[in-house]
């Protein structure tokens, strides 16, 4: 729809979702948060591993779909860029799996270049030490690019150690409304007092 395109709500292709979920290294019973869950195409892989799901989706229609598809999970409708500040304290995931908007923000007109960074910072803040964050972002969101280096430094300062990052072709998204190249990045939240620069 026009609204989903404007908000960059492009569903994650199943093969990419499978790889991202594999990077989570989920164990049965582990709690997973997906801050921008869309139609649940990432969540299905986590559910198949036996993870406990907390799904967040701002769009009402999509949130209703998630409630129907994942009746044993919990669903909220919050701005994912502020997920840590807005979620109840008892939502305690050990893994976050996300595909945030690349350059738009809720209630902000036009392009917003810090969208990805805002989503990742808030998600990382929700993780306990030792937790893992797996993110699908635009390909240009990488640590060696001057425009995003500051965002990676901020994640590192908050204990987010980048352990893997690879660019991927956006062709797999063609059926979902875009062909923008993407990047899969994995961050581990380090023990207290450590920063991701180590």
Structure description:
This protein is of the alpha/beta class and 198 residues long. The chain has helices spanning 2-6, 14-24, 43-48, 60-69, 83-86, 115-126, 146-157; strands at residues 31-34, 52-56, 74-76, 95-98, 132-138, 160-168, 182-189. Strands 3-2-1-4-5-7-6 form a seven-stranded mixed sheet, with helices on both faces. Helix 3 (43-48) links the parallel strand 1 (31-34) and strand 2 (52-56). Helix 6 (115-126) packs parallel to helix 7 (146-157). Mean pLDDT is 86; it is low at 1-8.
Helix content estimate = 25-40%
State Rg: 15 Å
Tertiary shape: globular
Give the strand order, joined by hyphens, for the main sheet. 3-2-1-4-5-7-6
Biggest sheet details: 7 strands, mixed
Report the β-strand fraction as a percent range: 15-25%
Number of helices: 7
Structural category is: alpha/beta
Order of helices and strands: HHEHEHEHEHEHEE
Flag low-confidence runs.
Answer: 1-8
Mean pLDDT: 86
**Beta strands, count:** 7
Query: Could you tell me how far the N terminus lies from the C terminus, measured between alpha carbons in angstroms?
Result: 44 Å
Provide a quick synopsis of the model.
This protein has helices at 2-6, 14-24, 43-48, 60-69, 83-86, 115-126, 146-157; strands at 31-34, 52-56, 74-76, 95-98, 132-138, 160-168, 182-189.
């Amino acid at each position: 729809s026009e609204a989903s395109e404007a908000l960059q709500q492009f569903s994650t292709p199943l093969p990419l979702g499978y790889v991202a979920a594999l990077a989570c290294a989920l164990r049965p019973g582990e709690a997973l948060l997906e801050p921008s869950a869309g139609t649940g195409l990432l969540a299905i892989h986590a559910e198949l591993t036996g993870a406990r799901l907390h799904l967040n989706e701002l769009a009402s229609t999509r949130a209703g779909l998630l409630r129907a598809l994942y009746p044993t999970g919990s669903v909220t409708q919050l701005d994912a860029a502020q997920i840590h500040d807005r979620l109840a304290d008892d939502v305690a995931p050990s893994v976050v799996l996300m595909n945030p908007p690349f350059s738009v923000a809720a209630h902000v007109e036009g392009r917003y270049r810090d969208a990805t960074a805002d989503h990742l910072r808030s998600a990382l803040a929700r993780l306990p030490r030792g937790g893992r964050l797996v993110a699908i972002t635009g390909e240009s969101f990488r640590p060696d690019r001057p425009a995003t280096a500051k965002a990676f430094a901020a994640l590192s300062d908050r204990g987010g150690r980048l352990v893997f990052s690879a660019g991927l072709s956006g062709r797999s998204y063609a059926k979902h409304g875009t062909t923008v190249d993407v990047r899969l990045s994995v961050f581990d939240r380090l023990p207290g007092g450590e920063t991701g620069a180590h």
